[in-house]
C-alpha cells in the first residue's frame, strides 16, 4: 500500500473520530496492525496496536503514523 493511500485512510479515520472505528491491516488472513484515531484535547492521536504483542505506538503526526504503517506492512509483505 502506498504512503499517500495510507495517509488518506488515516485522514478518513479521523473524520469519523467520534465513532470507535479500528482499521485493521492484514495479510493472508493474519492481522498485522490495527489503527484507530483518538481525539484527546482536540488533537488527533493515532494509536497503532500490533496484534500478538503488547506493543502500542501513539503518534500525533499523520505523516509519521502513515510512514510507520507503510514500513510495517512493507516489511510483512511477501517477497
What is the CA-CA span between the terminal residues?
A: 14 Å
Which sheet architecture does the biggest sheet show?
4 strands, antiparallel
- Strand proportion, as a percent range, falls in 25-35%
Q: How many strands in all?
A: 4
Oligomer: single chain
Shape annotation = globular
Q: How many helices?
A: 2
Strand order of the largest sheet: 1-2-3-4
Poorly predicted segments: none
Structural class computed from helices and strand pairing: alpha+beta
How many structural domains in the coordinates?
1
The helix-strand sequence is HEEEEH
Radius of gyration: 12 Å
If you average the pLDDT, what whole number results? Answer: 89
Helix content: 25-40%
Main features:
79 residues; alpha+beta; four-stranded antiparallel β-sheet; 2 helices; 4 strands; globular
Describe this structure in words.
With 79 residues, the protein is an alpha+beta fold. It has one domain. Helices cover 34% and strands 34% of the residues. It has helices spanning 3-15, 62-75, and strands at 23-27, 30-40, 43-49, 56-59. The chain has a four-stranded antiparallel beta sheet with strand order 1-2-3-4. A hairpin with a 2-residue loop joins strand 2 (30-40) and strand 3 (43-49). Helix 1 crosses helix 2.
Give the helices and strands, then pairings.
Blueprint: H1 3-15, E1 23-27, E2 30-40, E3 43-49, E4 56-59, H2 62-75
Antiparallel strand pairs: 1-2, 2-3, 3-4
Task: Sum this structure up briefly.
With 79 residues, the protein is α+β, with helices and mostly antiparallel strands. The protein contains two helices and four strands, in the order αββββα. A four-stranded antiparallel β-sheet has the order 1-2-3-4.
Amino acid at each position: 500500500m502506498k504512503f499517500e493511500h495510507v495517509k488518506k485512510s488515516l485522514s478518513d479515520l479521523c473524520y469519523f473520530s467520534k465513532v470507535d472505528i479500528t482499521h485493521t491491516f492484514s495479510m493472508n488472513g493474519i492481522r498485522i496492525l490495527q489503527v484507530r484515531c483518538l481525539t484527546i484535547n482536540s488533537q488527533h492521536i493515532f494509536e497503532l496496536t500490533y496484534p500478538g504483542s503488547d506493543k502500542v505506538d501513539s503518534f500525533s503526526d499523520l505523516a509519521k503514523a502513515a510512514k510507520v504503517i507503510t514500513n510495517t506492512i512493507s516489511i510483512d509483505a511477501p517477497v
